[in-house]
Design brief:
By secondary structure, the chain is α/β, with parallel strands linked by helices. It has a 7-stranded parallel β-sheet with strand order 10-11-9-12-15-8-16, with helices on both faces. The longest helix has 15 residues, at 618-632. Bound molecules: zinc ion (2 copies). One zinc ion binds at residues 448, 450-451, 453, 466, 468-469, 471.
Length: 733
């Protein structure tokens, strides 16, 4: 805190009062502080307060507790010269904390994710390319130059980050004159999207949906349409209507779908880009964006789930695109479902929320059926293209060669597609070369030392990787159990192994692998996608990273190598997720003038999910799923919560869950609640921690939170034991 802002406190004659201040740390409550004379900050004001020996920034939350002796309170140090955190933001933070049973301070922390955005505005020093020849062009220095060739000037920190070097390299280049300093203005103007710019021509069905959306009352609307039906164009008009009212609009997308294609369409419709919020932003971009959202200057924000917690000055509309995506569930830190929290945010602000999807989640469909949500359907494909026919390949009859994964029919179809100048896509949602490596002599399986999981061979990087904790090791020269060498066998296919098979079968085809291992982030994705759309490749081999929101006009064949993958594991939503993913992949085929076809390889073609995919009959599939869940009392017909207890010492974890089992509440509070477990979690060990799970099942009309509060009250957590509370769990590992 510098002296300039500290002196901005008004000093008056009144007796010192008090206020409670919430601090963005893992705290369940706000702390009371004394107010300096005559200072009455509004609720939501950002203030700096002493905490221990530090000075921290917090938010004035309430009046404080008069029972606490005022002379014992420490004093607020200063008010920060920024607008207060809006009332709705504070109510939202309280709601999210209470529902998800998370420390309210941790939720505030998500809303204050850019602490230096609260500092006084100042010019920022940044760098552009100076005299390249003023020093030796080392490898690191070449990366610095390359990072700047992309465009805008960067600060020292951002430049070092994107070039992957130390700040010292940047400083030395500056000293030699290889970089030139420029001053960035404290605030850069955000482009102003123009709602009245002419958009693309809309079909009749699209126009009807637009009319309904523009007249939207507060509440939730499902915008449902098949891939390519033009949902985006339709919800753009709802954004336009919101902008005409002078309010802000938020579009939440799963991170992976935040593509250059989407941004390009937005800029085309509105003449300016939206403000973006995702993990690839530089520190400066985050700071500028956070402030522009609070000041109301950023009008349309598109971002991943954390964008929901930005301090909107006047949010008038929320759109959750791909609402069925499980990526909206945050699985660490504060565990929450961003789609569900978006609905709450909309409800608190009394504004419309639009959930868009080609394959809506069962939760949302049931909410429509029961009248809680409205629904708009976009039946026709924009441009008149047909849904591609889907054929099931029965792998029990149409068998691949030994140690191969493509059936004769699929191989033939790829040849045909390429011969007729189309593109083919082989989809396998599994990274790496092989999911399991075992020793042929002794049967030893290569396992992660800190998780209950096999190590996955990645042949390109010549390493074994754990996909749960990120552990990596080199492939050992010999079996660690029997010491024999040359005995390792790769079991099962990963996308790298599939690429090897494709190279043998289709040696003439120009092949491209797209997986999260070959793709660094949105920028690299855009490059690869461009190679596909410009027909620089014939055959694409990829994981789910290619399934999202990209338009491939020349793709005429999609082959799903293992349609059954993802159905095992006993996950509540396994079939639903498989349907959504495969439907999305299938939708990549034949979106322009060229008709496409889709082949699904399966060992179980009679399964409802496979039949539904074949017949494009989503409704029948959802009805079957719905019936299963209704009978079992599973969501959305019942509620679930999970408790996960973990620790390094297995005996301590065991003893803790026994104590917990003995403390399960009974009586009225337990009416309609049942507790399953404790049981070892399927990932019984993760990152070196032993894990036990309880699953709490409630009737729909019973909230699990009061029961859980009663249960957990008074429990002690000795040593490094940790409790994770997951309300409405999506992961059952
Ligand atoms: Zn691991
Ligand atoms: Zn061995």
């Amino acid at each position: 805190m510098d002296s300039e802002t500290a002196s901005s406190l008004p000093i008056g004659p009144e007796a010192p009062g008090r206020a409670s201040v919430l601090i963005p740390l893992a705290l369940f409550t706000a702390y009371d502080y004394a107010l300096p004379d005559g200072f009455t900050p509004p609720p939501g004001a950002f203030v700096s307060v002493p905490l221990g020996r530090r000075s921290v920034t917090g938010v004035v939350w309430g009046d404080g507790d008069l029972r606490i002796d005022a002379t014992k309170l420490k004093q607020i140090e200063a008010a920060l010269p920024v607008p207060a955190l809006p009332d709705i933001s504070r109510r939202f933070i309280e709601w999210v904390a209470a529902y998800n049973m998370a420390p309210i301070g941790s939720v505030l922390r998500m809303a204050m994710s850019v602490p230096d955005a609260l500092e006084p505005e100042r010019e920022t020093k940044a760098w552009t390319i100076g005299d390249r020849t003023a020093g030796k062009l080392t490898e690191a220095r070449a990366r610095v130059i390359a990072a700047l060739e992309d465009g805008a000037p960067l600060t020292t920190g951002d430049l070092a980050d994107s070039a992957g070097c130390t700040p010292g390299v940047v400083a030395e280049m500056a000293r030699r004159g290889m970089l030139r300093a420029v001053a960035l203005p404290a605030r850069r103007p955000f482009g102003v999207p123009d709602p009245d710019r002419k958009g693309p021509a809309l079909s009749e069905a699209q126009q009807r949906a637009v009319d309904a959306l523009v007249a939207l009352e507060p509440g939730v609307t499902l915008l449902n349409g098949v891939t390519g039906s033009g949902k985006t164009e339709v919800y753009f008009e709802a954004i336009a209507a919101c902008l005409r009212q002078g309010r802000q609009a938020l579009v939440l997308l799963p991170e992976i779908a935040l593509s250059a294609q989407w941004l390009g369409r937005f800029a085309e419709r509105f003449g300016a880009p939206p403000a973006q919020w995702h993990s690839e932003l530089t520190g400066l971009e985050r700071r500028v964006t956070w402030r522009a959202v609070l000041d109301g200057e950023a009008k349309v924000i598109v971002g991943a789930r954390s964008a929901l917690f930005l301090p909107y000055r006047d949010l008038g509309l929320i759109i959750v695109d791909e609402e069925h995506e499980s990526a909206f569930k945050q699985e660490d830190g504060v565990i929450y479902q961003a789609r569900d929290m978006a609905v709450v945010r909309g409800h608190l602000a009394k504004i419309p929320v639009i959930l868009a999807s080609a394959t809506p989640s069962l939760e949302t469909v049931v909410n429509v059926d029961q009248g809680r949500y409205r629904a708009l359907h976009l039946p026709d494909r924009h441009g008149g293209a047909e849904l591609p026919p889907v054929t099931l390949i029965d792998l029990r009859r149409d068998k691949p060669e030994r140690q191969q994964w493509l059936s004769p029919s699929l191989i033939r179809a790829v040849h045909e597609a390429i011969a007729s100048e189309g593109q083919a896509l082989l989809f396998l949602n599994r990274r790496g070369y092989a999911p399991l490596t075992l020793c042929r002599d002794c049967g030893h399986r290569m396992q992660c030392p800190s998780c209950t999981a096999w190590l996955v061979e990645h042949r390109y990087s010549a390493r074994l990787q754990c996909h749960h904790c990120g552990y990596q090791t080199q492939m050992p020269p010999a079996c660690p159990a029997c010491g024999h060498s040359g005995t390792f066998a790769a079991c099962g296919p990963g996308v790298e192994r599939l690429a090897e098979e494709a190279a043998l079968l289709f040696p003439q085809a120009r092949r491209l692998i797209i997986t999260s291992d070959t793709v660094g982030g949105p920028k690299k994705t855009t490059e690869l996608i461009k190679m596909v759309t410009e027909r620089a490749v014939d055959l694409i081999i990829g994981t789910q990273i290619i399934a999202k929101g990209h338009h491939f006009p020349h793709l005429t064949l999609v082959g799903v190598v293992d349609a059954d993958l993802g159905l095992s594991g006993g996950d509540l939503r396994a079939a639903e997720r498989t349907y959504q993913l495969l439907h999305q992949v299938a939708g990549r085929a034949g979106r322009a003038e060229k008709p496409g076809r889709v082949l699904l390889q399966t060992y179980d073609p009679d399964r409802p999910v496979m039949q539904a995919l074949k017949d494009h009959d989503q409704t029948r599939f959802l009805r079957l799923e719905e019936e299963d869940r209704r009978v079992a009392g599973m969501p959305p017909f019942g509620r679930l919560a999970a408790l996960i207890v973990s620790g390094r010492d297995e005996a301590a974890v065991e003893s803790q869950v026994r104590i917990m089992a003995a403390a399960i509440p009974r009586g009225d509070i337990a009416a309609g609640v049942s507790v399953l477990g404790p049981a070892p979690a399927p990932l019984a060990m993760l990152r070196g921690r032993h894990r036990r799970r309880f699953l709490i099942k409630c009737r729909r009309e019973t909230a699990p939170q009061p029961f859980l509060r009663a249960w957990l009250r008074g429990l002690k957590w000795p040593g490094d034991l940790k409790l994770q509370i997951d309300i409405d769990p999506y992961s059952f590992l």
